[in-house]
Amino acid sequence: GENVEQHPSTLSVQEGDSAVIKCTYSDSASNYFPWYKQELGKRPQLIIDIRSNVGEKKDQRIAVTLNKTAKHFSLHITETQPEDSAVYFCAASISGGYQKVTFGTGTKLQVIP
Amino acid sequence: DAEITQSPRHKITETGRQVTLACHQTWNHNNMFWYRQDLGHGLRLIHYSYGVQDTNKGEVSDGYSVSRSNTEDLPLTLESAASSQTSVYFCASSDMRGGAGAPDTQYFGPGTRLTVL
Q1: pLDDT digits (tens, 9 = 90+) for B43-90
Q2: What would the DSSP string read from start to end of B84-116?
Q3: Minimum mean pLDDT among A21-25, A39-43, B27-31, B48-52: which range?
Q4: Per CB distance under 8 Å, which residues of A are interface residues toward B?
Q5: Torsion sign over Cα A88, B51, B29, A96
Q6: What distance in Å separates the CA atoms of residue B74 and residue B92, rounded to the nearest whole number?
Q7: How far is CA A81 from CA A19, A38, A65, A112, in A?
Q8: What are phi and psi of B103, to 5 degrees?
């Protein structure tokens, strides 16, 4: 089955700096890669996703890149703000009716004001 | 608005008791999932369903069961609760067509914090 590894497990940055979280996956059939943000005590919520026919996707201060050959994808947050502090999960799945998503173990991001 | 709800939000039970956690979604999604979340392990898949009468085991299914009698509900049953099942449980739903949401996106419920004493 799919295996997703996520690094780092914790990340501290100064407000205004950039943060990068990296993930690798094992199943070359995976074609849908979502990123979820989970604030303390809350449910995970999708912040951005990318499909295998796209190399990069951007939404305001967040961007995701995908390298299918190397089987890795990354989340980039620019101009970090205190409200970006949360746990971020990457995931990999095969899009379609029989979806099964495998999550990484999470990265706890702390933005220091 | 479409939503996914879980009940109860908090539950304390004793070892050996049977416990059922409810999950209800109004996204009109075919796919439903149960995860447990523990520190250092992220979200681990317990059971999942692709439609009515369909259920499948995930990576940590021992001691848990589910049934899917309609589109909206996927209750999770702990047959005989163990202390190792103390965790936060999340239900999620998705659909390749999106239903009331975006295609393939998993929408999570608010979670149930279960403590087994």
Answers
A1: 999 999 999 999 999 999 999 999 999 999 999 999 999 999 999 999
A2: GG-EEEEEEEE-SS-TTS-TT--EE---EEEEE
A3: B27-31
A4: 1, 6, 32, 34, 42-46, 49, 89, 93, 95-106
A5: positive
A6: 10
A7: 11, 15, 21, 8
A8: -55, 135
